[in-house]
Amino acid sequence: MIPLRQNIKIIISLMVAVSAISSQSSTAQNHMLLSYDLAIPAGNTKEYISTSSARGGTLEIAHLLSDEISLGLRIGLQAFYEIRDKDLYTEDNISIYGKQVRYINSFPVMVSAKYKLTTDRRTIPYAGLALGAYFFEMRTDMGLYNITNDNMWSYGFQPEAGLLIGISDNLRLNMSTKYNHIFKNSSIDSQGYYSFSIGFMLYNSGRE
Description:
Strand order of the largest sheet: 1-2-3-4-5-7-8-9
Distance between the termini: 41 Å
Structural class: mainly beta
Helix content: 10-25%
Strand content: over 45%
Number of helices: 2
């Protein structure tokens, strides 16, 4: 598992990289969203790690195609962690019994679209969908043994529902719920988790 301090460094590095790319064009962005994410595992992910994750974040930079529709780039991080005492782990017909430490590191890189259900209110509900790829690492440490999925990249998608609450002309509070679905690949079954985000959306009013 990547330590929390290093997770924060990764998020900041991704923010700087995406912001630098977007700043090369005068029409590259109309808003930037930064959020803190909590997550609850579901399905096969919950079978592997049942505990929720408070280690997550999302950065999104988007261009407004109209007053209602935006299209952007989204990157994120969610890290899960669980200790299981004297559990049984089976891999390739080999079973090992003992204390386990399980980790999941999920890094989505997505193209996102949002549709605002209204534009003339202080509180604006919206629906969204993001499509892209996940770097999805599942690792079990057990004594001297370490088991990690071989293929860590998979396609996935994120349906989303949220609210934007106006603070000023250029700043809004964002609250949203997303479901992360990661498709099955050669080394993992399909995975999923719910994300609950709170953060801020900063508008560049000169480009709206």
